[in-house]
């Protein structure tokens, strides 16, 4: 099989490419240049896709004896990931840029180009498994990335190869060390790649400017503080609220209203939600017949919770949680998994969260998160 190995310059993609070569595939490596100013996209272990990373990827390709190219997708990345990220925060939502990058860049732009060039599949270093065409969790629960791949369609998954899903991250590093790859001990990149200093609020402030507004207490309706921009907050946030409560109980962000620029806060007893309303879903295979039982994961490293899924999937889903959850924000992805204990690692699909509310209110969109 003729495959294109997406090589970020990290240890995971290096080992994935090596395993594809070992499997007898005709492998070509490609590094994605995602920023016009790539020198700014790494700060220690933060960020990725810098010139340094391109050099690391090229060295691995040379050691494997495979062709290697750099593809400039900076304009597409800016439009589909960075601009989308800013727009979502401006609208009071909390996006996941890694999920959007997988959807729009790695398994849309790259896959489309790969197919046009005659490649059969794209190999990546994601920690997830494909079994009989079904997307499943990695065996390494701590490194599992099935959540950010839940947006992929069956057609995209049919042209994807994830060689690392059946092993732990420790084993990945062992393989890299055995092969003498310099990236064997390279730190994992984390946080948002296009915000290498980790200051999301500062990044958004530079893009959106100051947009002052009130911080309101949900219980009393009183204004208890001011902020410089609602985009600097996300639902469920506890620290950095900039207010002093009248008692010792911690406060959490309960809601963000972008038009009035109001950030609503409240105590933990007000922070849980039992019902989620989503946009139209995408499915990794045949759509399940509604209603159905599932496990839903609401954050990249969140704990799945059992739920009942109803609604009209053309318009969106209604997800009724068995247990209330905190920190559920509009814009996040609700990724659904098979609830059967023997198959609970199978990803069914995902949908973007539009709003949240009380489980008792089972009709209508409910209050926005």
TrEMBL record:
Active site location: 101, 193
Listed GO MF terms: tRNA-uridine 2-sulfurtransferase activity
UniProt site positions, description: Interaction with tRNA: 126, 332
Enzyme class, first EC level, given as a word: transferase
Annotated tRNA-specific 2-thiouridylase MnmA-like central domain residues: 202-266
Domain annotation tRNA-specific 2-thiouridylase MnmA-like C-terminal: ranges: 276-353
InterPro entries, A to Z: MnmA-like (IPR004506), MnmA-like_C (IPR046885), MnmA-like_central (IPR046884), MnmA-like_central_sf (IPR023382), Rossmann-like_a/b/a_fold (IPR014729)
Subcellular location: Cytoplasm
Keyword vocabulary terms for this entry: ATP-binding, Cytoplasm, Disulfide bond, Nucleotide-binding, RNA-binding, Transferase, tRNA processing, tRNA-binding
Main location: cytoplasm
EC number: 2.8.1.13
Region annotated Interaction with tRNA, chain positions: 143-145
Positions of ATP binding: 6-13, 32, 125
Catalytic activities: S-sulfanyl-L-cysteinyl-[protein] + uridine(34) in tRNA + AH2 + ATP = 2-thiouridine(34) in tRNA + L-cysteinyl-[protein] + A + AMP + diphosphate + H(+)
Record family assignment: Belongs to the MnmA/TRMU family.
Annotated function: Catalyzes the 2-thiolation of uridine at the wobble position (U34) of tRNA, leading to the formation of s(2)U34.
Name listed for the protein in its UniProt record: tRNA-specific 2-thiouridylase MnmA
């Amino acid at each position: 099989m003729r495959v294109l190995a997406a090589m970020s310059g990290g240890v995971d993609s290096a080992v994935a490419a090596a395993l594809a070569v070992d499997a007898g595939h005709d492998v070509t490596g490609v590094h994605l240049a995602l920023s016009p100013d790539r020198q700014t996209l790494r700060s220690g272990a933060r960020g990725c896709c810098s010139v340094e990373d391109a050099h690391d990827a090229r060295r691995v390709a040379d050691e494997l004896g495979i062709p290697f190219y750099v593809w400039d997708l900076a304009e597409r990345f800016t439009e589909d990931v960075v601009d989308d990220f800013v727009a979502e925060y401006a609208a009071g939502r909390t996006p996941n840029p890694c999920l959007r990058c997988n959807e729009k860049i790695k398994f849309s732009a790259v896959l489309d180009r790969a197919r046009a060039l005659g490649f059969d599949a794209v190999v990546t270093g994601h920690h997830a498994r494909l079994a009989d065409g079904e997307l499943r969790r990695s065996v390494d629960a701590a490194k599992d990335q099935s959540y950010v791949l839940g947006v992929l369609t069956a057609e995209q998954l049919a042209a994807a190869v994830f060689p690392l899903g059946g092993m732990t991250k420790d084993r990945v590093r062992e393989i890299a060390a055995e092969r003498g790859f310099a990236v064997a001990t390279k730190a994992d990149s984390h946080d948002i790649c296009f915000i290498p200093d980790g200051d999301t609020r500062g990044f958004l402030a530079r893009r959106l400017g100051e947009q002052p507004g009130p911080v309101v207490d949900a219980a009393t309706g009183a204004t208890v503080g001011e902020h410089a921009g609602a985009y600097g907050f996300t639902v469920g946030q506890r620290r950095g609220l900039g207010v002093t409560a009248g008692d010792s109980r911690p406060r959490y962000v309960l809601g963000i209203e972008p038009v009035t620029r109001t950030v609503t806060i409240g105590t933990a007893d007000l922070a849980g939600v039992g019902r989620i309303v989503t946009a139209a879903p995408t499915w990794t295979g045949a759509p399940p017949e509604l209603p159905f039982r599932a496990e839903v994961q609401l954050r990249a490293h969140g704990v799945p919770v059992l739920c009942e899924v109803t609604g009209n999937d053309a318009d969106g889903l209604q997800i009724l949680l068995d247990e209330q959850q905190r920190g559920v924000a509009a814009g996040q992805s609700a990724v659904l998994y098979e609830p059967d204990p023997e198959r609970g690692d199978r990803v069914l699909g995902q949908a973007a969260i539009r709003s949240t509310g009380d489980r008792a209110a089972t009709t209508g969109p409910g209050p926005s998160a």
